[in-house]
Amino acid sequence: MSAVALSGIIDWHELAGWSTFTIELVTIPIFSAVAGLITNWTGVWMLFALVKFAGFRVPGLAAIYPWFPRRVQILPIFAAGGRFGFQGFIPARSEKMASMVVDKAISRIGGPSDFFRQLEPAAIANQFASIIASDLRSTVDAVIQHAYPDLLDDLPPRVREVVYARVAEELPELANRAFNEIGEHVDELLNVKTMIIECLAARPELLKDVVHGIGAPELRFMVRSGLLGFPFGILLALYLHVHHSIPVVGVLPNWLVILCGAAMIGVTVNVIAVRVVFTPAVAKPWYLCPWRQARFARRQEAAATDFGHAIAHQVITMPVIVGHLIDGPNGDKTKKLLNRVLAEEIDRILGRMKPLVSVAVGARRMKAIRRGSTSTAIAVVPELATDPEFNRVQAQKLDLLCAQKLRELPPEDFVELLYCAVEQDAWLLYLHGAVLGVAVGCVHLLIFGA
């Protein structure tokens, strides 16, 4: 290494006619800037890619993995079955990241009742009623057919028309009561944190898009800040010029100084990028902090708008809410509540027609029809999430709420939304910067010597 570092692969003194100091002063800053750009670009890339783990099985890794320090075990380079490879930091920790997003942001926006009120139960009820009304006759026929397959042919046309008309007349009131009841109990039926964690953990690419979307300008700045390697490279070149005249440390060979300096530059540009983006959250005088306030905090209003849009249109959507209400941990409670309310409403509707209908179908058949009616109505609920236009309108309502609440967050809390994606793995980004710095330093030594 020493021999190569001293001479390089080309004699630049003879080729360019420059002194060693001139060569170092010109080339080291350029190489340092390139190293900074590569370091910061790959560091940001590592946060988000790969979305899915890519790697290979290493014999014996599964046996020794339990002996690794905890800090090493949580690195996104290991997977079950003794596989070694890589996955982006954020996708690898999608469940934990989703939990932090809820704790630091969505829980501040409101609870289940706040979200449900913003969606307007009356609007959901109208949509529910319109879905049933769009195919009312077929739905009623299906209910009767389900209860008693031979009943439809026996039911007089006049009675059937009365049933159709009464159900159509009472349908809006039935739907309103059902969803008002859900609204009154939504805190018991809807666990927002569980819902969002399940949604984002199952779709790490969505979490990646959300985090990248709210911090895109800051992430671009972090990459560009790698150019700070250039002035640090100048300082390193100037230091090399006086290095051997300094007692004690002057005995170290130039090649070692270049490699150590390159590693320090790689770490420093990373540290500066992270600090400028995330600290301080509250503005300080310029003499205490040259950049005064974190870039992300300065952009809170615009970033809050972007984040609110992402939450409303990609995370807390009608399909997610409806799916969680019907099929989530409390889905049985939701169905039980709906069954009770719908049964009472259907009794009320049928009660007005009881003298007419019971003669035609009998009391026992009426009870079976009521049971079939509630089952059919509950089965329609998931269809609330299938209308793109309705979903878009509902998302716009949540969008306004989320953006407003996020803009009102204290700057310290708002900065945490993005910083939590970097904080745990910051040390690895710094280590990555040092390694790349050394690698670029080796290339410089190989070409120019020391």
UniProtKB/TrEMBL annotation:
The keyword Calcium does not apply. The chain crosses the membrane at residues 15-38, 221-242, 254-278, 427-448. Keywords: Membrane, Transmembrane, Transmembrane helix. Coiled coil: none annotated. The keyword Transmembrane helix applies. It comes from the Bacteria. PANTHER family: UPF0754 MEMBRANE PROTEIN YHEB. This is DUF445 domain-containing protein. It comes from Antrihabitans spumae.
